[in-house]
Sequence to fold (630 residues):
Amino acid sequence: EASLRLLSGSAKAQADLAFASTLSFDAATGSVLLEDLKLTLAGERAGVMPAQGLAGKLQLESPGLRYDGASRKLDSGLLSLDIDGLRSGSAEQPKLLAKGKLQAHLLADLAQRRHELQGIELALDLGGSALPGGKAQSLKLQAGASADLAADSARLSALKLEFAGLKLSANQLLVDKLLGEQPELSGDLALAAFSPRSLLDVLGIAVPVTADPKVLATASFSGQLSATPKSLALSGLTLKLDDTSLRGDFALRDLASRQLAFNLKGDSLDADRYLPPKAKPATGEAAKPATPADKAKLNATELPVQALDQLNADGTLELAKLKVQGVTLSDVRLRLASPGGGLKRQQLSAGLYGGRADIALDVSNPASKPGYALKTKLAGINAGPLLKDFLGKDYVSGKGSVDLDLHSGGRTVGELRKALNGDVAFNFVDGAVKGFNLGKIIRDGQNLLAVGKGGVAAAASSSEPQATDFAELRGAGKFVNGVLKSDQLSAKNPLIRLEGAGEIDLVGETINYLAKPTLVGTAKGQGGKEMTDLAGVVIPIRLSGNLYQPKVAIDWQTALSQKATEQLRGKLGAALGVSPDALQQQGGQDLLKQKASEELNKGLLKLFGGGKKNPPPAEPAPTEPVPPKS
Fold:
């Protein structure tokens, strides 16, 4: 038995060391036997800062530690280390507190440089501010370990680790180049099913509010681990989160630069379940248009360019099914090429409502002067179900395509809008524009015309669908500094031919668009009724004001005045002996003016008693004569 007190020169550290055992020594062989070994160390070290303080008590016991001098082998027996009140930091503000026991059986072959720890068991109760959330935790570890220093390798087997509700296991982990500067770790690793919600709570991290409160209920993973001091990789990875499963490879190629690489394939993911719930307006509350303050706030919103600049990733994610923002995609393939400090490129291809979507987004110079380039091609898309899922209402139905080729730049939403330039085009067939019935609107105009002529208006039907069918709907436009300018809108259906032109200002959130539907002369309109009174008449429809709540004005006065002018022209042409067909041909208007001038000259001659001699030819009238009032 022996005891010893150790003091540092500055008296900032002291320790008491006690040793007790029965010692046997064989001088001939150099063998040593220590029976009932007990080694106790208790002390305290004060630090310059409270967090640097260290105190506690360690007690090592063994029923018999034997060293064979001839074979140079050591057998420790069952070693037991009691950890009693081990503390870092000050007593008032401990950074870490530990209490528990470590047990193992050491076998060492000093001649062959092979060492083994059998039956490692560690159980600790932990506390202190260094723990996640400052909450007390328990740690349990079971494993076997061995090292072959001659082969420069080590092995950890049958690992079981439990901490903070997590259960990590490994059948075998190998370390090569153990004594070198770059040791290499490899082996299998598995994390048993756990609750991410519970883990976040243990870590002191607020659990995010999700649209579906049942998500983040369970997760697990397994795979083959390989790691060095500079990198980490998991191959043959199986990752599960709630109802979603992913398989593939994942790696941090460089820990310092956080260079990420992945190649994952999964079944289905409903991303909407993990997003924050959408705010619901109060019952009976009408949607309010955005105020100037709302627009200014949106335009001032910073884009996540800093986080994008730090992204350093290269990989592919494939999903059989993905739902995001209400839109369901199939056979999804996301390709990400985002090197640190370089061009960030994202490419998405997927099946989308009966068709295909191909989207490519490039972001350049996100740290200094971010620029964006977007190319989107939607082909064979069923617009109705897509808009229904994305916007909650199918404003347009039909099958067709959309092409976008846009570029912009800026660090805020407002800058992005102002710098938006590029081309947009769409083409849909066999569909309908929801929200208004153009056929009914034109029939209402026909009723107005009938009443104006002394007739009786037809009874209006309130059961007609609020939609306008089309056989083809196409359009194209160009963004110029945030303003979409288009004069290429056209639509066709059995009732009308439609053309349109105008502007949509994304920055000011305004629209100024003029649509010009023309009634087909020989067709029956939507609803099955013949419409001859308005045949060929252009009915101007103006959309103006707020982009999201535009005003719609139909210029019936202009439309009806067109019909009245045509009727008057027809009567005047008949009176002057000019056929209606002739008036529609090239030169018909000049002929009408000429006939009107001739008749006017004849009348003047009669008024002043002439008629014997032919008057000189009259100059053509400079303008179309106004018909006399009947």
Notes: The first strand starts at residue 2 and ends at 7. The chain has nine helices and 28 strands. Residues 221 and 469 are 52 Å apart (CA to CA).
